[in-house]
Amino acid sequence: MPQFQKEAVGQNQKLLALIQTLADSRQATPAQISLAWMINKKPWIVPIPGTTNLGRMKENGGAADIVLTPEEVQHIDDALDHVAMSAVFCGTAVEKK
After folding, report:
1. Contact 18, 75 (CB under 8 A)
2. Domain residues for 23?
């Protein structure tokens, strides 16, 4: 699976570290921060996480209680802007000129 290849994990480390830092500061999980980011982007965006685990479903619901600041949303957006598209996202290499 491409998301578990060393290259994909390495490409995402800075983003994952930012998400973990935000989660730690809010006593939340990285999944909750990710869902909160999506919820905070636009009022009509409704993330639909999938799980078969009742505990994870309850955890995901906790994201609705997290209101990120505009600066936090921007930090995540900026981090995403600098993550190269990997095979996880079916991305292609971007050549810088």
Report:
1. yes
2. 2-89
List phi, psi (to 5°) of 94.
-105, 125
Quote the Cα angle for 60-61-64, to 5°: 110
**Which amino acid, one-letter code, is at 62?**
G
C-beta neighbour count of 65 within 10 angstroms: 10
Into how many domains does the chain fold?
1
At 92, the pLDDT band (50, 70, 90 cuts) reads: low
Regarding pTM above 0.90, the answer is: no
CA 62/CA 30 separation, integer angstroms: 12
